[in-house]
Amino acid sequence: MVGDDGPDLSCFDFGDSDEGVADTAEETRDQTVKRHRQEEQVLRTAAKERRNTIPKGDRAGRAAEESALESELQHMRERHARQLAAHGVDHLVGAAAQLSVSNQPAKQSKGSKRRQKKEESDRVRDRRIAEEKAAAGPSARDIEMQKLVVKLMPLGLQVQEIPADGHCLYRSLAHQMQLDGQSGISFQHCRRDASAYIRANPSDFLPYLAADAGDASEQSLDKYCGTIEASSEWGGQLEITALAHFHKRCIAVHSADAPVLLTGEDYDANGPRLQLAYHRHYYELGEHYNSLVPAGPPEPQS
Questions:
Q1: Whole-number pLDDT of residue 75
Q2: Would you say 7 and 42 are in contact if contact means Cβ atoms under 8 Å apart?
Q3: Which of 253, 259, 297 is nearest to 158 (CA)?
Q4: Is residue 13 over pLDDT 80?
Q5: What is the pLDDT of residue 90?
Q6: Cβ-count burial of 27 within 10 angstroms (0-12 exposed, 13-18 middle, 19+ buried)?
Q7: Residue 142 CA from chain centroid, whole number
Q8: Under CATH, what is the fold of the domain 140-294?
Q9: How would DSSP label each residue in 152-189?
Q10: Which of 2, 146, 216, 263 is deepest in the core (most CB within 10 A)?
């Protein structure tokens, strides 16, 4: 019977001693096995009721309850084995069989089965993708990167990866200026600086906007500058030109398939060149800029 304090276990012996071994002489082996099953079921039922009183969010409490149940079950199984052994040596096999059944892992939940199935599916997919890539040979990104590395090695430079979030040009230039001691500069500063220079020198940039967008009005230039300032729109050569003149620094852009593109060579005396890498195939989304640093362990990016 189950009362307010859980099931009544008084009819069963859960002790760790050998008491009860002698009593098995009054039972047949089948009766002993039946009693063992009943005792284990009662123990599990009591443990389940205790577990149900523990809040679901209390993982430590639930884990402790599971551990306590396993300990109690282990002691019970050892006692049961001794009691079965009292029926004779021939019945030790039966004891071992019962222990084997009792020690079977708990039945998996549907959620656990789904997770395992998904994990296996993901492993199969990843393995297939890896095999297909291996069969296809080097990717366009790999080929481009290999070429760029060959060009950078004699210069003692290597790629410092910059996030591909639309700000890569500005982040790369900010990183270069930080390396040069301008610790307070950020990609937002670079965006504002580029916009400010273009606004201050419209005649230098309107022809390029006309060629690109077919509109050489001051309104289009103002809109273009607003986009630079307040969006994650990708930057290119126009912005590099503006930033080179704004900061009066030479910017060197290295790529796999073209000579180094220098902007602002007249400013070489003002400090080291700001070194960038330009990639056509670095990401599937398209073009990307990275910063270049002296060869060695790459710097961590925050």
A1: 85
A2: yes
A3: 297
A4: no
A5: 46
A6: middle
A7: 23
A8: Cathepsin B; Chain A (3.90.70)
A9: HGGGTEEEE----SS-HHHHHHHHHHHHTT-TT--HHH
A10: 263
- 101: pLDDT strictly greater than 60: no
Given this model, what pLDDT does residue 3 score?
A: 47
* pLDDT given for residue 214 in this prediction: 65
Catalytic member of 168, 190, 225, 250: 168
The strand pair at 251-254 and 261-263 is best described as antiparallel
Q: Is 168 part of the annotated catalytic residue set? A: yes
pLDDT at 17: 47
Q: What angle do helix axes 218-230 and 202-213 make, rounded to 10 degrees? A: 90
Average pLDDT over the chain, rounded to an integer: 82
Sheet bearing 251-254, strands edge to edge: 157-160, 286-294, 274-283, 251-254, 261-263
Predicted pLDDT of residue 89: 42
The residue extents of the domains of the chain are: 2-105, 140-294
Q: Which among 278, 275, 273 has a CA at the least distance from the CA of 289?
A: 278
- Which residue of the set 30, 126, 165, 268 is catalytic? 165
194 secondary structure, DSSP code: H
Q: Looking at residues 54-80, what average pLDDT do you find?
A: 84
Rounded (10°) angle between helices 237-247 and 187-200 = 90
What is the band of 299 on the pLDDT scale with cuts at 50, 70, 90? Answer: low
CB 221 within 8 Å of CB 205? yes
How do strand 274-283 and strand 261-263 relate by DSSP bridges?
unpaired
Q: How far apart are CA 171 and CA 179, in angstroms?
A: 12
Got the DSSP string for 213-267? HS--SHHHHHHHHHHHHHS-PPP-HHHHHHHHHHHT--EEEE-SSS--EEE-GGG
Q: Is 288 a catalytic residue?
A: yes
Is the pLDDT at 10 greater than 70, yes or no?
no
Instruction: State the Cα–Cα distance between residues 179 and 243, nearest whole angstrom.
Output: 17
257 tagged catalytic: no
User: What value does the mean pLDDT take over residues 198-226?
Assistant: 86
Whether residue 229 contacts residue 191, with contact meaning beta carbons closer than 8 Å, is answered with yes
